[in-house]
Design a protein that fits this description.
about 100 residues; alpha+beta; 3 helices; about 45% helix; Gyrase A, domain 2
Length: about 100
């Protein structure tokens, strides 16, 4: 099912709701920092399971105890509600 691209106003509103995620062109991203590598990997695995449920997968860059998540809807060429819904779910259930 195709998702509609969000306009700039909708993107800014959804970003405000998320908190400390940042926008860079057609993507949103956030860096999470953990106590150690094992904690970072647990987070990555938890995000992977959630992403599979959404059938929407972030890019993940792992650097020891830091994980950068980047979301965009590649099939639509920009940001859709899927990106923000997944980011919000990550914030509410995994990144506590």
């Amino acid at each position: 099912m195709a998702e509609d691209l969000l306009d700039d106003e909708e993107i800014e509103q959804r970003l405000d709701e998320l908190g400390d995620w940042e926008r860079e062109e057609n993507e949103i991203h956030k860096v999470y920092e953990f106590d150690d590598f094992a904690s970072a990997m647990k987070f990555v695995n938890d995000v992977a399971k959630m992403a599979d449920r959404y059938d929407h997968h972030p890019d993940m860059l792992i650097s020891y105890n830091k994980v950068k998540l980047t979301l965009t809807t590649h099939s639509e060429g920009g940001l859709t509600s899927l990106d923000f819904d997944l980011a919000n779910d990550i914030e509410q259930t995994i990144a506590l």
